[in-house]
Amino acid sequence: MIKDPSYWRRELIKTAEQLERRQHQMRWNEISFSRTEQSVMIAFYGIRKMLEARKASPRVCAASVRCLEYPRRPNSGAEVISPILQAYFDLNHPRKRDRDLLFVCHQVVHSYIFSIAVGYSSGFEGIYFASDRLRSKCLFFVGARTLIKVFRMVGIDSDTGFSPWVEERLPYHWVQTAFPQPNPA
After folding, report:
1. How far apart are CA 85 and CA 132, in angstroms?
2. Pairwise CA distance, residues 27 & 45, whole Å
3. Could you say which DSSP state residue 78 is in?
4. Which of 18, 87, 120, 182 has its CA 20 to 30 A from that of 53?
């Protein structure tokens, strides 16, 4: 459980700013790809933790994310074993879908496929992803502008209330334990 979501939210704002700069970055190397991957993964993990800990407003909890969904090619084999996405998914016929934020968080955090998309004459374009469970059915894409918008929306979200914590000093360390909040519904 997250004790104080303000720290997580600040990091989401920083990640949104980093991704905004990456949209204009023309030269990419392994470090650029790795840092972008880390930032996006940690951001979605943080959002998921805030949603599950009820540390987000109802507006954020009900938010949806515009995705492109690519169907799996019928005769592409049982296992995705190559990094060539076109071999497994029909990238020419995407479907626009609005998916709830928690669904996207789960897909990214549990991704079997995760790729950073960078344009030939532009910078960061977005991410392709699919969880271990859905990789045999479809591939998702979220554009850079949408990612930035989502990270900013959650980053500026107001606190939703107090969660009681108990501090305890044990012989070798200090512990803070959270108690679950009652369900408001």
Report:
1. 15
2. 27
3. S
4. 18
* Residue 56: both structure tokens together: 């987000």
Q: In terms of pTM, does the model score above 0.70?
A: yes
Residue 52 near residue 61 (C-beta atoms within 8 A): no
What is the DSSP annotation of 90-140? Answer: -TTS-EEEEEEHHHHHHHHHTEEEEEEEE-SSSSEEEEEEEETTTTTTEEE
Is 36 in contact with 124 (CB distance < 8 Å)?
Answer: yes
| Tokens standing for residue 47 | 């959002």
CB 51 within 8 A of CB 61: yes
pLDDT score of 44 more than 90:
yes
Count Cβ atoms within 10 A of the Cβ of residue 126 and give its class: 0-12 exposed, 13-18 middle, 19 or more buried: buried
Rounded to whole angstroms, how far apart are CA atoms 152 and 25? 20
pLDDT at 142: 98
Express as a percent the part of the chain with pLDDT over 90: 63
Q: What is the pLDDT of residues 106-148, one digit of tens each?
A: 999 999 999 999 998 889 999 999 998 998 899 999 999 999 9
Q: Which of 79, 82, 56 is nearest to 154 (CA)?
A: 56
